[in-house]
Sequence to fold (379 residues):
Amino acid sequence: MCKPMKAVKISIIINKDLSKSVTDDLFALGLRQIFSEVGRSSILNKSSSFPSFLSRGSLLSYPVEIISFIVQEADELSVLSYIAKKYDLRTPGKGSIFSHELDILKAHPHYTQNHKIHFKSKQPGAFYQQLVGITCIVQRGEGDKISRIALNYGASVPAATFGEGSGARDKLGLLRITIPPEKELVNLVLSKHDTNPVMELYIEVGKLDEPGRGIAYVFPIKHGIVNTKISRSRIDQAASIEQMVSAIDAIKGGMEWRKSSLEREATKRRDYLHDLTELNLICEEGRGTQLTEAAMSSGAPGATICNVRYSQLDEHLEARRYIREICKMIVPTQKVAAIADALEATACFEDDSKALLYALPVEKAFTYRAREIKKRHHR
Fold:
């Protein structure tokens, strides 16, 4: 495998009604390739009949898009600042934006165009740096339970997307478990100080220590702004709790000042998985299943395949839109090179599949492991 190319991935979670405007602005800045996934965010719909600390409220969902693109590190803060300012993302309820480092491992020449970012002004704004991302993949229909965790404890607003799992279902056949392929991916960005308690609640509520229930993993964030508008209340007031908390965040320069009630939840010692990497393989629609089989033959435990919209400016600066598949795989870091080589052997980086493979670091993960049951039987 050739030497990876360092880059930065920027993601924007925004109301679906604004997604076209954001994409057009990004093209106007000089970007040439943009990906987007359709999803939903949820907030608590609290009634004024009871004090907020007694009423958890129902969930109120609304459509969002997760827009992502790859830039050079030199352009990272300028792009973040431009979008954050134009779409007022520092105001709770407007959306989230964040960045993280990645390694581009292999790519079809189609993806090697250089963005030529241009601004009238390059004045980077202030962003939080004490952040992490958590993705929890569960069976479809379980996403609301996971989303409610972050909302009940005031962490931030999650965004859920949908996909189809492969690989792990076959490996659980000896347990006579039928696992539906449809998955929900709950994506959350929050203060790193709340990582352990949120993971603990994900494991308990999502029953991730049981076979076939799912996986949760943590990845680092470089810079970001988090949507903290977790509820809608009918009470009229000059400023919402979220607005006041956001103002204190700005004054303090971060979110670590908060004394979260989540802290008391992190009481169990979990055997987390480490030395992992998230591999993302973007390919032509319909090719994901075959390509992930090649990846699994070289050490990938499984994959979740999602549809994404790929928008590209052609040589005439006309926007072209296509459907692509993104295959997300959490793999041992020592297997990355072998998996990349196995994918290359399928010619997936040539014209038939037009694939892009990039890697993101994973700090830790948790999922069911069969050997844990074996240990219990030996005791």
Notes: The two ends are 44 Å apart (CA to CA). The domain at 276-378 is CATH 3.30.70.120 (Alpha-Beta Plaits). The chain has nine helices and 15 strands. Residues 195-206 form the longest helix (12 residues).
